[in-house]
Amino acid sequence: MATIYDIAKKANVSAMTVSRVINNSGSIKESTRKKVEEAIKELNYIPNSAARSLVSKKSNLLALLITDVTNPFFTKVARGAEDKAQQMGYQLMLCNTDESVEKESKYIDVLLAAGVDGVLFTPSGEKSKKNLRKLAKHGIPFTLIDRKVQGINCDVVLGDNHEGTRQLLQHLIDLGHEKIAIINAPLDISTAHDRYQAYVNTLKMNGLSVDERLVLKSHYKKENATNNIEYILSLSKKERPTAIFATNNFIAVETIRALREKKLEVPHDMAFVCFDDLDHHATIDPFLTVASQPAYDFGFTGVQFVIERVEGTAPQEFRKIQFQTELVVRKSSGGQL
Amino acid sequence: MATIYDIAKKANVSAMTVSRVINNSGSIKESTRKKVEEAIKELNYIPNSAARSLVSKKSNLLALLITDVTNPFFTKVARGAEDKAQQMGYQLMLCNTDESVEKESKYIDVLLAAGVDGVLFTPSGEKSKKNLRKLAKHGIPFTLIDRKVQGINCDVVLGDNHEGTRQLLQHLIDLGHEKIAIINAPLDISTAHDRYQAYVNTLKMNGLSVDERLVLKSHYKKENATNNIEYILSLSKKERPTAIFATNNFIAVETIRALREKKLEVPHDMAFVCFDDLDHHATIDPFLTVASQPAYDFGFTGVQFVIERVEGTAPQEFRKIQFQTELVVRKSSGGQL
DNA sequence: CTGTTAGCGCGTTCAA
DNA sequence: TTGAACGCGCTAACAG
C-alpha cells in the first residue's frame, strides 16, 4: 500500500535514495539510511514486485511442471525444488500436467504470461517438444527433470534408467526367474524407452529371450491394471511369467492391487519389482523391491541449474547429470525359486 | 518481448485498441479485431503480467503455505488446491514451513512482496497469529487449512478432530483396551489440542481414567520416536499401555519404526491407530487403522474460499467448513483382546 | 552522497 | 468504435 514515495516524503529524501537503501546499491550516508529504514518500518512498506519486475524484467518466479505431485517420486522432487528455490530467493509455482501435452501447453502459456524466469519440466513425452521450443523461443531457460526429449538441448537431470533396470532384472534372474513381464508406459517417454531397452538388454545378456507377449502397456499414472493381470492369467502355465517388472510406482501400486483382486499372492504366486520407492510405506512395511532414485536431489539440482541459467552463471555447454539408482531388496521379489 | 505497441503498429491501430481486443472490453469492429489478432499471432505476443498487475493490482497468484508437502496429507491438499486454482485461472505458489513460525514469517514477507492475491495457510500454531495479522493488515485474504487460530476471523477448512479421535478411541476401547497412550504434537496447534480433548472426553465417557503418564509429546514432523517407545517400555507391566494413538501420520510412521526397533509387533504386542491415511501404502498393504480425512477437498475448497474473497463474491460472514472423518479399520488395531 | 528525469508495458479516463 | 494522455511503483542513467 505504501509506496516508495511515501517513504521518501516521511524520511525527507528522494524516492531514489529510498530505492538505494532497499537494494543496498550505491553508497548512502549512515544517518539517512537510518531515517529511511525507520520510515519503512513505520509504514510497513513492502516493495511492489510487479513494478520491480516491470523494470528489471525479472520475476524471481520459477515453475515446476511435473505430472502429478501425489506421485511420491514427484512429491520429493517438489520438496527438493522448493527448498533450493527458497534458499536462492525464488518462489516456485506448482503445475500438474497429468501426462497430458494439452495441459502442458496451457500451463506454458500461463507461465509465459506470468513472466516466470525459468522452468523445471518433466515432459510428458516426445510431443512435449513443441512446448519446450516455445519456451526457448521466448528465451525462458528450462531444465528437464527425469526425462529427456530428443533434439532438445538443455540442462537435464536424470536417473540411471539402464542401470536401475539392470539391477532389478538381474536380481530376479539371479533368483531363478526366466519369464519376466514388463508393464511399461508409452515408449515416447524417455524413461519408458530406456527401461524397455535395458529390459531387453539384460534378458539377452543372460541368454534369455524376449517374449513379446510379456511386454505389457500401461501409463505412468494411476490406471486400473486389472486388464493386464487378466491377460497374464489367460496365458498358459508354460507362457505365464513368474515375475513382473513395473516401470514406475503408480503402475506398481495398481498392479499389486489387481494381483490381490485375483487372489495372487506376492511374492509367492508372482515376484514383483518396480522403479521408484514409496518411502513412508517402506518404513511401515518394507515390502516392495525397488530401484530407488534420489528424487529430492532431482528437484534440488534442477532448480540450481535453472537459476544458474537465469542468472547467467551457468557454463555455456548444457549439463547432464545422471543420478545413481539404488537397488533395495525387500519381500516382493521373493527368495530363490 | 513484443509489446502492445508493436502489435498496434503492425495492425495500424492504437495500443488502446489492442488492449481492448486482449481483454474483450469495449466494443471493437470485427475487422479491426481480426487485424489485431493476426498481429498478435504473428509476433507471438503475450501480455506482460507485471505491467498488468501494476495497473490492476491483481497478480492471479495464490500461495499455499503448508508444513511439508511430503506429508501425504498435505500432498493431497496441494493437489486439490492446484486443481482448483488452475481451473479458476490462478497460479499456486508452494511454500513449506516445517512447523516453524520463523519460516512462516519469511514467506509472508516474500509473498506480500510478490503481491499474491490470497493465501492458503496451515498455521504452525498459536504463534502464527502475528503472521496472519500481518496478512490482514495488508489486506490479503486468507483461508486457514486444517488448523484454526484463536482470535483470527477468516474462512477456515477443518476436519472433525473430535469425531475422528472419538471413532479411533472408541474402536480401541470396544476391542477391550483400557490403557491407551496418545502421542501428540504441541497443544498450541488446534488439531493437537482438539484431538487431546477428544481423547480425554472419550476415555471419560467410557468410564476410563486419564493417566498422565500415557500422554506423550512429539511433533507433527518426522521425529525419532525411540525415546517415547523406550519410555513406554520402562513402565511396569501394570502401567504399560496396550494401545497407542498417534495424532498424525508422521508420528505414526516414526512410532511404528521405533516399535519395530524394539521388536514389538503391531498389533500383537501393541495395538495402533492414527489420524490421516497414507494412501498408496493402504493399497499395497492395508495395515494402519486410521481416521481418514478428505485432504484433497481441504485444498480444493480452501482455494475456492480465498478466490471468492479475492474476487469479492464471498458472503460477508466468514465460513467454517468441517469435513467428516472416516474410520478405516485395518490390521494395526488388532482384534478383540 | 543525493536528486531529477525518463520509461518499463499496460489500462483507465476522457475525448473525438 | 477508436485514440491520446496519464499514471501504476520502481530503477537506470545522468546530473550535481
From TrEMBL, chains A, B:
Residue span(s) of domain HTH lacI-type: 2-56
Keyword set includes Transcription: yes
Any Pfam family: LacI
Transmembrane segments: none
Domain of life per record: Bacteria
Keyword Transcription regulation applies: yes
Alphabetized UniProt keyword annotations: DNA-binding, Repressor, Transcription, Transcription regulation
CDD domains listed in its UniProt record: HTH_LacI
SMART domains on file: HTH_LACI (SM00354)
GO MF entry, a single one: DNA-binding transcription factor activity
PANTHER family (UniProt xref): HTH-TYPE TRANSCRIPTIONAL REPRESSOR PURR-RELATED (PTHR30146:SF148), LACI-RELATED TRANSCRIPTIONAL REPRESSOR (PTHR30146)
Protein name: Catabolite control protein A
Native source species: Halalkalibacter oceani
